[in-house]
Design a protein that fits this description.
Chain lengths: 243, 230
């Protein structure tokens, strides 16, 4: 292989004047984490609301939940980001569209909201599966005790669901982190974007991508270990994950 | 809102969108899921083979692929495939690889990791009595796998495999990052040439939505039919 390896490239100054190539990659790493956390908050909030809607006795609520999930699940994330970034400002009233186009950090907000809503459909499915996996007796007992539907969810179903859902949510969170890289297409220079930029500036393709790969593996490792501790701390005794 | 919506730009570019773009997307989806299934099954067999080293290699590969974003993997293979080609053919310089080959290799290698996890679950779901009975009948390991275990595992996992293929169909749009003309790439080229981003992206979104919806509806029906047989 006649490729010229140069691992010291990371300590050389980058031409965009922000420090070394390593600094460049690390700033991308920070942006990836920031975007992923914002997107994850949106995904959790919307996903859990929609997931609960799908299990409610009301036909309208569950139909709305179904439509929401199908809407966000059946379009590629890339297309969804394009819709938010390029299409939405054009079809809104002129003043709003102008405001959106002039907003600073527009790619960041678009990515956080776009990835967040995309992932919320998956969180909704996990929430629904979690609630449905509870023994039916729980809901029946709550009703027999005279709890309203809201109280049943608040005090009986949801506390259990959250604790059961944690392992699948870990993998959804990892997907959220990975999915932020799609925002490279709307100009968000996160970790993959910085690796790509480094490759264009320095022509050291494989060093740049190796570094990005190692950083993604590190994020994964940290998340998996942290979640394992959390899972152990809040596992429901008597359930599969609880010992 | 839609006062200056130009439907004609869609009509004019239909041929380009579907003959150039969608053909690329669908061929890539079909071949990549086939290749991914074959490699994925091999990886799953390696992990379940009981040979420590083989299992560990396959496990590392699957974990690595599953921890990386697809965009990064696309970039990796886009630059790596010419060098792999050079190594395979013994050429003196990195060979030129077409857009289609490059993305096909990428998606086969990436999807193999996901398909292997599905196939592994499928193989493990087969009751132990099946391979034991096959062995008692004198079948070799490869015969047991070929005629007894894999067909059942494949059948049980068919809905999951098809759902993963729908995900793959949507994921192929990411070849956009290396400027390949798939369906979205074609839509985006027309959009930028004619300054009609709203029309083209809404149309592309609708097409993806309809195809994925129809496909997942089909999978759901299949699932109930398979469940009935059991």
């Amino acid at each position: 292989m006649n490729y010229h390896w140069n691992w010291r490239i990371f300590w050389e100054p980058a031409p965009n004047g922000t420090g070394t190539y390593l600094d460049m990659l690390l700033s991308g790493l920070v942006l990836t984490i920031e975007t992923a956390i914002c997107a994850w908050i949106i995904a959790l909030v919307f996903g859990m609301i929609v997931g609960v809607l799908r299990t409610l006795p009301s036909k309208t609520a569950s139909w709305f939940g179904f439509a929401y999930v199908e809407f966000f699940r059946n379009m590629p994330l890339l297309v969804q980001l394009f819709l938010w970034f390029f299409v939405l400002p054009e079809i809104l009233p002129h003043a709003w569209g102008l405001w959106m186009k002039q907003m600073s950090h527009a790619p960041f907000y678009t990515a956080a909201i776009g990835v967040g809503l995309f992932m919320s459909a998956r969180v909704a499915e996990q929430t629904r599966a979690g609630i449905n996996s509870l023994p039916r007796g729980q809901k029946l007992a709550a009703t027999a005790l005279g709890l309203t539907t809201a109280q049943t969810y608040r005090y009986v179903l949801l506390p259990m669901t959250f604790r059961i859902m944690l392992p699948p949510l870990t993998s959804e969170f990892l997907s959220t982190i990975k999915n932020t890289s799609v925002a490279i297409t709307i100009g968000l220079i996160e970790l993959t974007g910085e690796a790509r930029a480094m490759q264009e500036f320095s022509f050291q393709v494989f060093e740049a991508f190796t570094a990005a790969t190692v950083l993604y593996l590190l994020i994964n490792l940290v998340v998996v270990i942290a979640m394992r501790f959390l899972e152990r701390a809040i596992a429901v005794p008597g359930y599969i994950s609880g010992k | 809102m839609f006062t200056n919506f130009d439907f004609d730009v869609i009509r004019r570019s239909l041929g380009y969108l579907f003959f150039d773009g969608m053909t690329f997307t669908l061929t890539l989806t079909g071949l990549a899921s086939l290749g991914g299934l074959i490699f994925g099954t091999l990886l799953a067999l390696m992990r379940l083979s009981g040979l420590k080293l083989l299992g560990r290699i396959a496990g590392l590969y699957v974990d690595l692929m599953r921890s990386l974003p697809l965009v990064l993997v696309i970039f990796w293979f886009y630059f790596l495939v010419p060098y792999i080609g050079q190594w395979l053919t013994g050429a003196s310089r990195p060979i030129r690889v077409g857009a289609f080959t490059s993305s096909l290799v990428t998606f086969i290698m990436f999807e193999a990791a996901y398909f292997s996890e599905i196939m592994r679950a499928g193989i493990q779901s087969i009751s132990k009595g099946q391979p034991a009975a096959a062995q008692a009948l004198g079948l070799t390991y490869s015969q047991t796998m070929r005629y007894i275990v894999l067909p059942q595992a494949f059948r049980n996992m068919l809905p999951v495999l098809l759902t993963q293929t729908i995900v793959l169909f949507q994921d192929t749009s990411l070849v956009y990052v290396v400027s390949i003309t798939d369906f979205l790439g074609a839509a985006s080229k027309v959009a930028q040439r004619d300054g009609r981003l709203v029309e083209m992206y809404l149309f592309a979104a609708a097409v993806y939505f309809i195809i994925s919806c129809a496909a997942s509806f089909g999978v759901r029906r299949l699932q109930t039919r398979i469940a009935f047989v059991h």
